[in-house]
Amino acid sequence: AYNIHVNGVLHCRVRYSQLLGLHEQLRKEYGANVVPAFPPKKIFTLTPAEVEQRREQLEKYMQAVRQDPTLGGSETFNSFLRKAQQETQQIPTEEVVLEVLLSNGQKVKVTILTSDQTEDVLEAVASKLDLPDDLVGYFSLFLVRETKDGAFSFVRKLQEFELPYVSVTSLHNPEFRIILRKSYWDSAYDDDVMEHRVGLNLLYAQTVSDIEHGWIIVNKEQHRQLKSLQEKVSKKEFIRLAQTLKYYGYLKFDPCITDFPEKGCHVVVSAGNNELNFQVRLPNEQIKEGSFKVTRMRCWRVTSSVPMSNGPSGSSPGKSEVKLELAFEYLMNKDRLQWVTITSPQAIMLSICLQSMVDELMVKKSGGSIRKMFRRRVNGALRRSDSQQAVKSPPLLDSPDASREPMAKLSNKLISVSLRGISHSSSANDVGANDFHGNYAFEGIGDEDL
């Protein structure tokens, strides 16, 4: 059997014959010229070297299928992964109660089947909350890890190829939970969500939670105004004021390491407003802040590596920590591209954020509606139409190199996308405002250089 890791986690175990069956089904549905070549059958027993060669070929095959928008988004491929996940974890199909958290800590208990996919569970939660159908697509389910102080560390957005109940129970750790949060980046969409009582309450609870956890920066005067609006239960006005604050609508990640502006810098990364924001602690303890716009990233890649053990005294490979890195190639100035690497256990979640920002930009650029982007009916069944991709891990100990192939290329997609700037508050009352030096990464680049 082969272990398939998806988004850095063991997803399922499958045999060669099962993968061959998937391949034949894909060929039947989409034609031999669309589906990548499959490692051939062998008559005789494989040698260890041939077993490893086949494993590499199967890995490349699965990555190629997943990276193809038609094959990777197909129900054939996704249902294969879901079924294999359920069989691997040996969880029979039965009715269970799943607990989903809201941002304010409230628990929503939904009765689902263990075999229900992400979309089904999201529907069940929305139904329990009385959230109208046309607003369901503005929200997503996220797998999070609860930290000791009650905050959350984001693991990933739950995808269409997994079963949420199986994903969370197979981790055998009560710290892992499923939480419901909004899943768009442009705060203009808040208006749609706030039209309905339940949408407003969910957005309000998330905003209050993000302020309490220090994700949104608030000075004393703003804090006083927010408190007053909270006492009056003026939820819309509360959200309107919060929208003007620094880091509203951003996801904050755990402290990690970056090689920018120099190797080994400690950084807190936040994702929002179509950018990755860095708060970097330099070796001289000074804090610098800057942002990397998604429209100036030519491509990005997630790599995983396992440290080599030193001889017999080293720890066994099974216990080695997998190191995850997100590297992106960035337009620093008009004719200079540079790789920036973030080393973080949350690299996959960062990549999923970048992908969904690009998806949202593309929908807006084409004049589409976010409602259509998130929800589309195919053959009577609800399907997501955003191009969320699974994140593939290139071979171990890979290094960012512009000549490597598996990368999410953006330059051709985003050639003429231009973003309106958002004015950041530079009030002296802002937390640590004097320590920040804004946007030092790309001085002197205008929109015409995108």
- How many helices? The count is 13
The CATH superfamily of the largest domain appears as Pleckstrin-homology domain (PH domain)/Phosphotyrosine-binding domain (PTB)
Low-pLDDT segments = 310-319, 375-450
Beta-strand proportion: 15-25%
- DSSP, total strands: 18
Classification by helices and strands:
alpha+beta
The CATH architecture of the largest domain can be given as Roll
The total domain count is 4
Give the % helix: 25-40%
Shape: globular
Overall pLDDT score: 80
What's the story with the biggest beta sheet?
9 strands, antiparallel
N- to C-terminal distance: 47 Å
Subcellular location: Cytoplasmic vesicle membrane; Early endosome
Domain Ras-associating: 94-185
Membrane topology: Peripheral membrane protein
Protein name: Sorting nexin-17
Could you explain the architecture of this structure?
By secondary structure, this protein is an alpha+beta fold. It folds into four domains: 89 residues, PX Domain (2-Layer Sandwich); 93 residues, Phosphatidylinositol 3-kinase Catalytic Subunit, Chain A, domain 1 (Ubiquitin-like (UB roll)), CATH 3.10.20; 62 residues, Acyl-CoA Binding Protein (Up-down Bundle), CATH 1.20.80.60; 109 residues, Pleckstrin-homology domain (PH domain)/Phosphotyrosine-binding domain (PTB) (PH-domain like, Roll), CATH 2.30.29.30. Helices cover 32% and strands 24% of the residues. It is built from 13 helices and 18 strands. Strands 8, 9, 10, 11, 12, 13, 14, 15 and 18 form a nine-stranded antiparallel beta sheet that branches. Helix 10 packs antiparallel against helix 11. It is found in: Cytoplasmic vesicle membrane; Early endosome. This is Sorting nexin-17. InterPro entries: PH-like_dom_sf, PX_dom, PX_dom_sf, RA_dom, SNX17-31_FERM_F1, SNX17-31_FERM_F2, SNX17/31_FERM, SNX17_FERM-like_dom.
